[in-house]
């Protein structure tokens, strides 16, 4: 059965270009009414213009869909609340939030100004927090919501020159982990998307493939699944160039060590601690404590 979003309202941040634009076009093509949010600034977050978002709305309308623009910066909580009010006034609900807006201020940590670190964290992490907070009570009240955080391989695995960006992107994984637990009873499902695509953000990287092979449109099917009625929750979906993978935060079985020489034992048994045989994906943070207590109980029984 075709995946449809008829009757649903979606907010896509940073939807004036790149991945956000593709996500918004696809949601609208499949029946959703979409808020096209974009500040319209440069890649480093400077400046602003409504024209890119307006062009996306025009494209959706020309194809027979429904969309409105919004120029709030995701860093401005009052403006974000006003954006959500605008969607509620027009369409009466918000089913889907795609936290996609983002900026880059790459530099090695040695050369990075604190302000550039703070700014990138503010846009990616606090931007997603602001938008999610502004829709959370609405979704709880509806007993329905689908939220995606756009993370990155730079956060999950690190990337030279992106300490600010990587830290913000991994923070979104932590936000997703807890919100998926807290949202479950109201059928609010929260997931992360880790995309790879040729956009303005990655245009300097140089690609070994033709640019069409890295089209953002090849990421969007993964996003659509993560915001669909049948979405999973707490997934980290990697997507790019037609490849789809899933990332996990895992915990090894580990060992039990106490005593005077515990530091030396930790060093000596680090290979055993690191052994991935039988590793698990904990359902929640408390699982780590449970595993440790179980080891201690066994040792003391
Ligand atoms: P992009 O620069 O084309 O899109 C980002 C959009 O966010 C821009 O249109 C920009 O105007 C908007 N934006 C920036 N700051 C904003 C703010 N404060 N409020 C509202 N809108 C704002 O880049 P993209 O590659 O399409 O990036 C989309 C998302 O995907 C970002 O979160 C990015 O970090 C993430 N990502 C992209 C890649 C990739 O390979 N392109 C890889 C990993 C993660």
Automatic annotation (TrEMBL):
Q: What one GO molecular function would you report for this record?
A: oxidoreductase activity
Question: PANTHER family from the entry?
Answer: DEHYDROGENASES, SHORT CHAIN (PTHR45024), SCP2 DOMAIN-CONTAINING PROTEIN (PTHR45024:SF2)
**PROSITE patterns, alphabetically?**
ADH_SHORT
Taxonomic source organism: Brevundimonas intermedia
Q: Does the keyword Manganese apply?
A: no
- One Pfam family in the UniProt entry: adh_short
As for family, the record states: Belongs to the short-chain dehydrogenases/reductases (SDR) family.
The protein's matches in InterPro entries, at most eight in alphabetical order, are given as: KR_dom, NAD(P)-bd_dom_sf, Peroxisomal_Beta-Oxidation, Sc_DH/Rdtase_CS, SDR_fam
Q: What is this protein called?
A: SDR family NAD(P)-dependent oxidoreductase
| Boundaries of every Ketoreductase domain copy | 8-199
Q: Which UniProt keywords apply?
A: Oxidoreductase
């Amino acid at each position: 059965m075709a995946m449809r979003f008829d009757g649903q309202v979606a907010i896509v941040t940073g939807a004036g270009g790149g991945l956000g634009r593709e996500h918004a076009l696809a949601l609208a093509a499949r029946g959703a009414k979409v808020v096209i949010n974009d500040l319209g600034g440069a890649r480093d977050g400077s400046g602003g213009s409504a024209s890119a978002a307006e062009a996306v709305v025009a494209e959706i309308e020309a194809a027979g869909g429904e969309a409105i623009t919004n120029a709030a910066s995701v860093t401005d909580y009052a403006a974000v609340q006003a954006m959500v009010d605008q969607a509620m006034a027009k369409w009466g609900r918000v089913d889907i939030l795609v936290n996609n807006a983002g900026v880059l201020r790459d530099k090695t940590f040695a050369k990075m100004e604190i302000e550039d670190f703070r700014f990138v964290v503010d846009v990616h992490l606090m931007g997603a927090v602001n938008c999610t907070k502004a829709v959370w009570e609405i979704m709880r009240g509806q007993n329905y919501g689908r939220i995606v955080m756009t993370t990155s391989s730079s956060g999950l695995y690190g990337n030279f020159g992106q300490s600010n960006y990587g830290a913000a992107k991994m923070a979104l994984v932590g936000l997703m982990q807890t919100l998926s637990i807290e949202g479950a009873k109201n059928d609010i499902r929260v997931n992360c998307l880790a995309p790879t695509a040729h956009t303005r953000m990655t245009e300097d990287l140089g690609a070994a493939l033709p640019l069409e092979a890295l089209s953002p449109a090849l990421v969007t099917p993964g996003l659509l699944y993560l915001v669909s009625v049948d979405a999973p929750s707490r997934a980290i979906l990697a997507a790019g160039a037609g490849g789809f993978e899933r990332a996990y935060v895992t915990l090894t079985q580990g060992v039990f060590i106490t005593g005077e020489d515990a530091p030396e034992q930790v060093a000596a048994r680090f290979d055993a601690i690191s052994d991935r045989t039988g590793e698990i994906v904990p359902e929640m943070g408390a699982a780590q404590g449970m595993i440790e207590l179980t080891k201690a109980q066994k040792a003391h029984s």
